[in-house]
Predict the structure.
Amino acid sequence: MPLDQIGADAPAAVIPVFDPATAEQIAEVPDVGPRAVDAAVARARATFESGVWREMLPKHRAKVLWRVAEIVDRRIDEIVEVEARNNGMARWLARNLIASAAEVFRYYAGWVTKIHGQSTDIMAEGGISGANARYHAYTLKEPVGVAGLIIPWNGPFYGAMVKLAPALAAGCSCVLKPAEETPLTSLMLPEILAEAGVPDGVVNIITGYGETTGAALARHPDVDKIAFTGSTETGKLIVQAAAGNLKRVTLELGGKTPVLIYDDADLSKAVPGAGLGIFINAGQGCVCGSRLYVQRGVYDQVVEGLANFGKAMKLGGSDDPEAQVGPIISQRQLQRVSNLVEEGRVQGAEVVSGGRILDRPGYFFEPTVVTNVRPDMRMMQEEIFGPVIAVIPFDDEEEVIAEANNSTYGLAAGVWTREIARAHRLAKRLEAGTVWLNAQLAWDVSQPFGGYKQSGWGYEYGWEGLNAYLKTKTVYAEI
């Protein structure tokens, strides 16, 4: 769908949509508000109760999900064009994420025919008759119902597909709200899903601000589950909103990923690994490694290598085929990143490289390496969501574990060392839902992903991601 047609029929209350690489408006979408949320939820509820999707034979539902992946593959150039312009990310990254989104649908298509409970025979003492009783007991796995899906702006199409795939595999009907900054590829989904064979009304797309449309979805009494990816602050508000009907909640929230580089690490891999781990997508990822702890023996070497790595990265918009790092999503977020760096500088931090807003159209911030930081600085405590990394020296393991775990977040962590025993020992001690050993940003849809502490509730991906959209019923039959 061309950009100039998306949102063309929007009412007066609209949200402007920008290309972050140029700061130019490229579309507008409606802030639909609570009444439209009511209508979308009602459509989802009607399709769920009718069984048009959840009672479809599993093998047929699996084929539909597989066709979604095939259509995405076929239309990937078109989706990349919209995604890259709306989000600002480099085209190579947009292509990788969209191709991965198709694979997520293929993965969950395979699960559709394998959703089942357990059965067992039970002997219980003192039945109603006073004698021992024998039962055949079994469990049923059933879709949770209507799922509200709220996705972020840092990987919009991928984020939508990651939530839709397990929800549809489970048999749920859905209402999906994209981030107000990046709604455009989500608005391509109805056409894709319809062509694949998803019945009308099973997936409903609504657009709007979080405090209006998103809040109405989160508190809606006829929504059975909310799956949200975004900030920890908003996640807490969603928990409060969900209390009305005690809806189930899955939260993938913020992170402040610590990365540890030991003296014995292979620096030819560790330095670019740490660089890509923070500068990719302009640092706009919940697992980006913004805190780098380096053993003192290689500290100066790592700082210099990381600064050079950042300086060598080419910044550019989606129209630049050589761009490696794109812009920050909005002027507001750009200013927040800049303010956090400047605040650290005033408090004594040293900006080794970068640290400036680029003097060019769009919302570009240089890849930035900062040293001489303290644990109480905001840049060490808050999720920056920008291409900024703080590098801290350490001497021994106990010291660095305490510092790495000194965070309200616990989404991911990384370790670079050649000593295998140390690597696995640290994997157990780091308080994070995902730990990378001699790697960063490794991912597979078969492995669960979720956070410790205030980085979230529940898991996405794998069986656990599917189970998040299922409920369990136990049945006893006397025999």
